[in-house]
UniProtKB/TrEMBL annotation:
It comes from the Eukaryota. Residues 93-142 form the MYND-type domain. This is MYND-type domain-containing protein. Keywords: Metal-binding, Zinc, Zinc-finger.
């Protein structure tokens, strides 16, 4: 929120009167929305997980079925989008992407996830995944939780963390 900074409103001809209490209240609402956003899987992680799983489904089929067009409806792959609502956490290592589900009873594999000890936001299924992902993760940046929440430069105007939107990745068939 540009007007909730210490300097006040940055627009010298702003027609609105910004009282300090309103600015503080709006700032707290923004920070709480950011905390909520940090608790959810990112769009990037959900998209990567979808791409890996849809590629796995397609490659596990006989060649006659896997040759169908990407435009053809596919109930198994369409179900992946529906499953996004049931995702609790995703391992942040792009080469792993294991999922912890909200309703584990119906799932065979539901690994418990660990948090990055510094930022308390990024999830990993094992210490090995965290070590392998450290070079990428530290660039996000990996900051203490409240510092990440309060730093306006790390957030888009739409309330998502910069760098966590859709990102094109290469899906290796051998994964």
């Amino acid at each position: 929120m540009f007007f909730a900074r210490e300097a006040g409103c940055l627009d010298p001809i702003c027609p609105f009167l910004h009282d300090e209490e309103a600015c503080i209240r709006v700032r707290e609402e923004v920070l709480e929305a950011r905390r909520q956003e940090l608790r959810r899987p990112t769009t990037r992680d959900l998209t990567q997980q979808y791409l890996v799983e849809s590629t796995r489904i397609r490659s596990s089929r006989p060649s006659t079925l896997s040759s169908r067009s990407f435009d053809d409806p596919d109930p198994d792959i369409d179900r992946l989008w529906d499953d996004n609502d049931n995702v609790e956490k995703i391992c942040s290592n792009p080469l792993c992407l294991k999922v912890q589900w909200k309703q584990p009873a119906a799932r065979v594999d539901n690994p418990s996830m660990m948090l990055c000890s510094r930022c308390k936001v990024t999830h990993y299924c094992s210490p090995e995944c965290q070590k392998r992902d450290w070079k990428r993760h530290k660039k996000e940046p990996c900051l203490p939780y409240e510092e990440m929440v309060e730093n306006d430069d790390l957030w888009t105007r739409w309330g998502t963390r910069k760098g966590t939107g859709n990102v094109m990745i290469h899906v290796d068939e051998d994964m």
